[in-house]
Amino acid sequence: MSAVHRIPRDATIVAWRNLLNLRRTPGSVIAALIQPVMFVLLLAYVFGGSLGGGDYRTFLMGGIFAQAVTFNAAFTALGLAKDLDNGIVDRFRSLPMPRMAVLLGRTLSDLSMSVVTLTVTSLCGLLVGWRVGGSALEAVLAYLLILLFAFAMSWVGAAIGLMARSVEVAQSAGLIWLFPVTFVSSSFVSTRTMPGPLRTVAEWNPVSATATAVRDLLGNPPPPGTDPGTAWPVVHALPYALGCAALITAVFMALSLRRFRRISLV
Amino acid sequence: MMTSRPAPPAPAIRAEGLVKRFGAKQALAGVDLEAPRGTVLGVLGPNGAGKTTTVRILTTLMRPDAGRAEVAGRDVLADPEGVREHLGLSGQYAAVDEKLTGRENLYLVARLYGMGRRAARRRADRLLGEFRLEEAADRPSGTFSGGMRRRLDLAGALVARPEVVVLDEPTTGLDPRGRADTWKAVRDLVGEGTTVLLTTQYLEEADQLADSIAVIDRGRVIARGSAAQLKARIGGERLTLTVADPRAVAPVGELLDSLGPHRCDHDPRTGRFTVAVEHGAHSLEYALSLLRGWGVTVRDVELAPPTLDDVFLELTGGAPPPGPVPAEPDAAAALTTGSRA
């Protein structure tokens, strides 16, 4: 299609519109920021004491980052469902803009949201004693990896938002999958004590790989006495995490676009 | 074209045999439409007649199951992007972003039509002025009144100065002032050479604005022509008279039926009779003289050309039923049954 070159331009314009919307609904933004802060405090002080104290708090943050950006996928699901519901998507569809720009605009604005989430979460981490142990370059790479993963998860949210038949369904469907996906992982605890099959799932969970790779890059080792194991995705966390992000993005982008075209042409 | 003479201009909107089905429901059963450039085509029909489905197909938001359509010389199926570039749509429910200001809404649409930043800003300012929205321009559009939101939505449809503008029930729910504003905007557009397709449930609106009218019912065009042609189709004038005495209903009804080929309607609530007559003045005089002879008091009498309402009711077969409304005893029966159950 000749409109391909317009995708980035129009997506940026749609993202601008989405961000204006977010800025004017500060309540939902604040709610989205309270959630990771709450998890940091809960895990650091309620569970952290029996899991390694200060060492655990250092270990924890990589998992918190992975979880926080995964939860932002719920934002994408809800945002798209609302746009479909209130007629603004009909307006977009009647304009000479590529369909893809509507979806990419949404995932880009939610990526900006993830930048805000990461900033607030990092500040909160610093307050509870988390520190970057590695080099500055590695730290930058760690944040880039998290944002890449955020982008991938946002496309999962987009697909859910487009499949949902109403805003209410999008809201609950966009949230429920996040709990098993982020908790059946090595985000917050070692997978060692999990029963066999669950342990395998957790080890191969892209959330685990992202958290592990981020910890490696940030120089945040696991607390002493916790054995991360030697499963392939644990040992090769960085390439596995990158591969997962690319694959998830490709698959869910294609699914979302196909679904969006379908609802566009009932 | 090889010849020096220009080809006759293609109509701005042409639809042939549009069919659309939603599950078991046949929404469109072969709709043909045509609007020459610079004219207003009114698509008139009750709720659920297929107006919005037609609009969605013409604006590339939906694919027909069969049939073809061209808008601004471009095929809606083969070149939807081309159609969208030359089309402005203002929907039944104003599609404005409530969190964005009026200015931002128009700027957004202008940018997405491909305009640069400065051109988009200038176009937004210009339209805010034309649609009397300057004062509210920097308020979130969610705080706008219904009429202002419609104006903003309409302004959004005109951002790119499109060749064809499609307005889906643009005045539904508007107050008289809002309606007058919208009508003026449509007339201005046509004055500039734009082609407008307008769906409406209001016959007066079609009568006021449309050069030609297509009446849609149950997914089919059941009549087309100018307002005058449609009125002429059902012939003559409308004789309306009201009698106070309920005992006179039967004889008056017989008398009015005997005036010509058309049967009269009687509204038992208001006591009003309506009948289509071929020779208005003569029929009126004749009926009144007979009624005077019978001693029947006529409270009110009127002779008028048919309105589009008359045309519409006659064409769709939706004329009010003569005699007492049959629903009432049924409703009473249902109530009784309900209380027993």
TrEMBL record, chain A:
User: In what way does this protein cross or attach to the membrane?
Assistant: Multi-pass membrane protein
Name the residues that span the membrane. Answer: 27-47, 59-81, 102-128, 140-162, 169-189, 237-257
Q: What is its main location?
A: membrane
Q: Which residues form the ABC transmembrane type-2 domain?
A: 27-263
UniProt keyword annotations, A-Z: Antibiotic resistance, Cell membrane, Membrane, Transmembrane, Transmembrane helix, Transport
Superkingdom: Bacteria
Q: Does the keyword Transmembrane apply?
A: yes
Entries under Pfam families matching the protein: ABC2_membrane
Similarity comment: Belongs to the ABC-2 integral membrane protein family.
Q: What is this protein called?
A: Transport permease protein
Automatic annotation (TrEMBL), chain B:
Name the SUPFAM superfamilies for this protein.
Answer: P-loop containing nucleoside triphosphate hydrolases
Domain annotation ABC transporter: ranges: 13-243
Specify the signal sequence span: none
Q: Which InterPro entries match?
A: AAA+_ATPase, ABC_transporter-like_ATP-bd, ABC_transporter-like_CS, ABC_transporter_ATP-binding, DrrA, DrrA1/2-like_C, P-loop_NTPase
The record, for Pfam families, names:
ABC_tran, DrrA1-3_C
Family from the record: Belongs to the ABC transporter superfamily. Drug exporter-1 (DrugE1) (TC 3.A.1.105) family.
Q: What is this protein called?
A: ATP-binding cassette domain-containing protein
